[in-house]
Amino acid sequence: MSVTTTTPASPPTDRRRTLIWIAGTAAFVALVLWAANLYGSMIDLRVYRMGGDALLHGPALYDAKLPGIGLPFTYPPFAAIAMVPLAAVPFGVALVIWTTASVLCITLLWRASLPKTFWSFVTQRKRAAVLIVLTMVSVALEPVFETLHFGQINLLLTAMIVLDLIRPNDARLRGFWLGVTIGVKLTPLPFLALLVVTKQWKALRNAVFGLLATVAIGFALAPRQSWRYWTEVVFDANRVGGITFTGNQSLNGFLHRIGNTASWVQPTWFVASVIVGLAVLWLARKYWLADERVTAIAVMALAVLYASPISWSHHWVWIIPLGVALIRSVNRVWGLNPAVATGILWYGLFVLRLIWLVPFRDDRELDWTFWQAIPGNSHLLLGAIAFIVLAITSGSTANQVENSKNNPPAV
Question: Where in the cell is it found (predicted)?
Fold first, then answer.
């Protein structure tokens, strides 16, 4: 009599899980394209393709205007060079490729931001499902939806920065990709300060090398446009749009909405940006030294968002890792229930799209009442609250790290 043994089903292989995820992402991208009618929008993707096309066929890169809208190309020449492949394919193909990459970056951000303690409670089989659900829900967040709707580059740059800097200190070329993101869009420049105050000299060297490489490629392939950008265009803040527009969720936008063209606005913005930058740098350094890298990076992003002359609402995709950092800090000090409530409030308020519930455009922001200014500047207000909470809880984080060093777990 023979005995037949049944071998337990083995868990999905990495290849199968990858195929499942790619199929799920492709279906999700198709749903997003249909639900949001992105074929009729994608303004920024059209501008990116215009930049790549201008390098291939003319006119001069910084003279080109998007037909019907008149938007110019505002990024360094390297960004236009990187967009040449998208300009060389039909718009529909570029749209699907670009949106798919952005959606995958949402997944990568969640995977990098959530701590190991979270993943330890999730079985290997369910991790892909958790990431897919988080990715799908994230599209409802105002900054994320706007990024997908306009075809913006924010999700790609944010994922590049986070994935680069959370790597081990001895990882090959760590910091290089941060430098590349600066070469694509100058706004990540303050992250170099974080590398300085935390004495990450190797990463700083690599970041500078990455930035200089993008500048060198720009001058090699588009010398005239590179010279024009670095001597003229880079100093023209008016190219990127109206400062008072509610979509500009920066300190500069907030102050202009209050004082418009008053003489005190610019010097106040400069002083306030320096103060905010130093405060953010202090807190980011504190978390970095406590080995809370994602929190430190997300906090440092506040310096970028607050101090930039223009921080469109879609630049605030940093709310994904910042929200995770906030939830973890609240949980560490006040427990699970307050942490859950914090997460619901944080992400829920961004789902409500408060900044678009008040009058905007045509300088109507200049006539806001006090109660209209609250939702109209809600991204800034929520960022300030996050900073305060993280500052309050930073001492607890440092103490826990110190205790773990002094009392290592028994083997």
Answer: Cell membrane
pLDDT digits (tens, 9 = 90+) for 99-157: 888 988 999 999 999 998 888 887 777 888 888 889 989 999 999 999 988 999 999 99
Query: Is 1 among the domain residues?
Result: no
Domain shared by 198 and 293, yes or no: no
Q: Which two tokens stand for residue 218?
A: 């720009």
pLDDT < 50: residue spans in the chain: 1-11, 409-411
| 59 upstream amide cis, omega within 30 of 0 | yes
Q: How far is CA 149 from CA 102, 174, 231, 293, in A?
A: 11, 31, 32, 30
Query: What domain range is 323 assigned to?
Result: 239-395
Q: Count Cβ neighbours within 10 Å for each residue of 340-355 and write b for 16 or more, e otherwise.
A: eebbeebbebbeebbb
Question: The whole model's pTM is what?
Answer: 0.91
Quote the CA–CA distance of 361 and 245 in Å, as a whole number: 6
Burial of 134 (0-12, 13-18, 19+ CB in 10 A): middle
| pLDDT in the model for residue 40 | 57
Which of the listed residues 207, 236, 265 is the one where a domain comes to its end? 236
